[in-house]
Amino acid sequence: MTNTQAIEVQDLVKVFQRRGEETRAVDGISFSVKRGEIFGLLGPNGAGKSTTLKVLTTLIAPTSGKASVLGHDVVADPLQVRRNICVVIQENALELYLSVRNNFRTFGRFHGLGAKEIEHRSDNVSEQFGLRDHMDHKGIDLSGGLKRRVQVAKMFMVDKPIVFLDEATTGMDTFNKRTTIEAIKAESRKGRTIVLTTHMLDEAEILCDSLAIMNHGKLIAQGSTETVKSMGLRLLSVNIQFDKMTRQILQSLYKTRPVKVDVNKTDVEVTVRDEKQALQILASAKRNGSVKHFEVSSATLEDVFVELVDKKASGS
Amino acid sequence: MQAVLAVMYREFLIRRTSPMWLFFDMLLPLLYLLMFGVALNKAMGAGMQAEGITVSYTEFFIAGVLAMSAFGSATNQSYGFFIDRDNGIFYEFLTYPMTRGQFLFGKILFQCIMSVVQCGLTLLAGVYLLDVSVRWNSIPFVFAGMMIGTAGWFFLFASLAFLIRRNDTFNTVLNGCYFILIFLSSMFYPLDNVPTWLRLASLANPLTWLTDGLRWLVIGVGDASFVLTEMALFVVFLFFSFWLALKALQRAV
Asked: Containing domain of residue B188, as a range?
């Protein structure tokens, strides 16, 4: 492993055996994450993202393969790995019977902070995440979104070089989601490596320097966000605004077999595989309805994601 | 050491917020002694024979209460894993900068301190309220016995808590263990005159080893070499339980 890499995963396999049944949750994946970058691990439910994160954070041991964090093997040297990471796990994790303040205090103690430093840093994160008015409330009395906020805020109290965020913004309102995204960006600028899994592909597109997409335990795409978006696919997004939406228009659009069609009243967003298909769509739209406005742009990460996952699922 | 202290600090904060838990940890065995011990002491009248020595039932029972409190605080502490698991915090802990052993050690060290306080309160009540004569020079060893006893049971029940995962199943197992282990032991009655099968089963029970050890230390009843063998067996049980708990914790996620 070169010293520019924060995480290195090689041929990682994790097999679960429950009641005689074998599930290959992670199936021979390899990737690396550079120091200081924001890396997104994406995939549909059950793709193996959280299992991969559990291996990297030493929660579970891999069945085979290797994974290391800052050069420390997750199996041979788990304590050194834990000394360099902090983790927002997928599940809500909070001391329900302690106040928010005491949640910060216990977390700080576990991470070796002194009493004064804990107070100072918990003041900062409570301000940053809008928790100042809730500091004396017990975890059990907080709403789901607030609980998640406390859980995420704790991670920004400590200066660990690598932060793992498993669906960190789940359950947060737009304001707090934005705060969290800003905090993640700020931490990355300070040189921290951030590894996140998310279902919010727009979020991943905004945040991530590089990505890996998983499906059925395997990696189906990886590279920089731009590379993944353009992976052998010339996906385009065609937005058309009609005067009036008719059944005939929709039928004609589906006939061209696009990747995805989203209809919102008289607006249609069609994801297509290439320029030729985009032209077909526009010609068909013009033939079957009155087009008020149209726009062709490169596809979003979400479009690429859907296409990649569908393509692998259909075996093409 | 910092990790162990952090675990203890967290335990302290949680107990401080729960007077009910404090009640179970500190006062329940004392109430057992005061109510159950006093009632049976009256019923037995002139006292009872244990290992050829005549003692009052309260004197006989006080070691049983101590063993019961070690057993009870260990089960309470291990039940806490279910609360941590329900809160999700259990999994987060396992990513903190500490070993699994430090995590378990911090938890049990805190509980051992609670057990020693509980033991002190029980002995004081025995001496000053129930006229029990205690071997004061053995008290440090009684405290050590309480710590070893609490740790042994905690590690065993923690292993079960990690492996069982469902708290309703764990509760059923716990109730079964309470019933079998407590009544198949020397906690409530001497084993001198019980049927052979009951005596043999009781002698294979680590709770008997702990109770006999504490009884010998507190009131001097028991054959020294036999009791020392039982105490040595309990230490083996402690190490086995610790190993089991570590293994179970590795598989707890």
From this structure: 2-250
Structural domain total, chain B: 1
User: Rounded to a whole number, what is the distance in Å from the CA of A142 to chain B's nearest CA?
Assistant: 13
| Cβ count within 10 A of residue A140 | 12
Residue appearing with tokens 């409570």:
A126
Q: Out of B6, B14, B17, name the one closest to residue A110 (CB).
A: B6
Tell me the chain B residues in contact with residue A164 when contact means C-beta distances shorter than 8 Å.
95
Please classify residue B3 by burial: count the beta carbons closer than 10 Å to its beta carbon, then call 0-12 exposed, 13-18 middle and 19+ buried.
buried
pTM over 0.95? The answer is no
Give the CA distances from residue A143 to residues A16, A139, A173, B103, B106, in Å, rounded to whole numbers and listed in that order.
34, 9, 11, 29, 31
Q: Report pLDDT digits (tens) over B48-63.
A: 776 777 888 888 889 9
Q: Does B92 touch chain A (CB under 8 A)?
A: yes
Out of B2, B89, B250, the one facing A95 most closely (by C-beta) is: B89
Quote the CATH superfamily of domain A5-229: P-loop containing nucleotide triphosphate hydrolases (3.40.50.300)
pLDDT at A220: 85
- What distance in Å separates residue B28's CA from the closest CA in chain A? 23
> For A63-77, B104-118, B179-193, B216-230, which range has the lowest pLDDT when averaged over its residues?
B179-193
Q: Select from A79, A89, A96 the Cβ nearest to the Cβ of B97.
A: A79
Residues of CATH 3.40.50.300 domain(s) within chain A?
5-229
Q: What is the pLDDT of residue A1?
A: 47
The CATH architecture one would assign to domain A236-298 is 2-Layer Sandwich (3.30)
